[in-house]
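Example record

Each entry pairs one chain with its bound ligand, histidyl-adenosine monophosphate.
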Amino acid sequence: MKIPPVKGTRDFYPPDMARRNWIIDGWKRVSVRNGFEEYDGPIFEYLKMFQIKSGDEIVEQLFSLTDRGGRELALRPEITPTLARMVNQQISSLPRPIKWFSVPRLFRAERPQKGRLREFFQWNVDIIGVDDVLADAEVIFCALDYLQEVGLTPADIVVKISSREMLAALLLTIGVAESELEDLYAVLDKRSRLPGDTFEQMLVEKVPDENKRKKIFELMAVESIEQINDLLDLTDAAKESVDELKHLFELLGVMGVADFCVFDISTVRGLAYYTGIVYEIYDKAGELRAIGGGGRYDNLLKQFGGPAIPATGFGIGDSVLAILLNEKGLLQKQLPSRKLNYFVACVDKVYREAAVKLTMKLRSAGFAANFSYKAAKLSKQLKQASDQNAGRCVIIGDEFRENKLAVKDMATGEQQLVDYDKFFAELK
Ligand code: HAM
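Structure tokens for the complex follow.
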């Protein structure tokens, strides 16, 4: 009986694993140089943890299970609730600001499509304990630091930035009730992914008043921060969040990444816990789903039973990123290829033991080494050495009786007879 892999999951054969590791190693390297420390949590948590504040979309996509003790659990669809739980648990002893990153394996029962899977990896970078917009700028910089390092430019990607706080103030001015905001965000977030009439139908359900809807459409058509002033009389709250947004753009300029960033009022984010600055990273051509997204979530720790501590951060998935890098020709050429320092061949099975011993000695000295399992024809063994991308091939032949080895440089083809002890003395 053949059992297929589960829909929306991936098998990582060695070349796929090399790609995955290259991406994740880069995430980790860039996080560390931006001053973040790594953390992780369990792959499953209590189901209710994801029902508190992640929003309906995530809740509908949960992989949930009941354990033998009758506890309702779920595979994590994101790590932000775990982060909030972990920080709350040790809040009095953790030095602040908390600058943490993680690369969790996540699970969402989404309809699998290009860039959307049921199991994926996501780079998370978060700052907890800083309410200054400088922290928002710093995490956006961190994302762009990585994206630039792998070769993406403002011609390839764009960070679309807005503020939920500002949108809330503007929607309240239009006459939307505070209690309707959260539901409205969920609809507005779907706008770019839905056919126009489906979106309008959903909006009618949330906002039956035609006049208000018209104003929402006008608002969502705004193309610059300045334009907002012309459209509406700003309340003090709205002015404050407009100023904060402007300040964010100034800081992104100071950090040298302004070319990647644009104001986009329709960026709302799907998750329910965001409270302030929000952003999403897209391919410039707009052909793919979001590469990543994040924002400020100043109430989440409190909603998880902790003190009111501000927080901001983002998540970038591995799958859309890999698709984009591949399309741009940036993936394959940067991948380190499999490297074996030595391949040990022997011309006759009488030298097998010597070959095994020599290989182990090389490995103990820190070199990646393999031997041939068969004393096949030397040409076959050399082919194996080259298939395994060996730098050198050590050939054990009859000269071994005089304590000598043939060492072949696989790149130049040059071969030398070397004294056994000298070979080990000069290893590098
Ligand atoms: P999110 O927007 O749900 O945010 O996910 C962030 C990124 O994860 C997406 O832009 C996408 O690259 C990737 N992603 C999401 N779902 C899938 C999927 N089904 N298949 C493949 N990739 C996917 C969050 O998860 C927030 N917790 C991020 C965050 C951290 N906000 C603050 N801190």
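The chain is about 40% helix and 20% strand.
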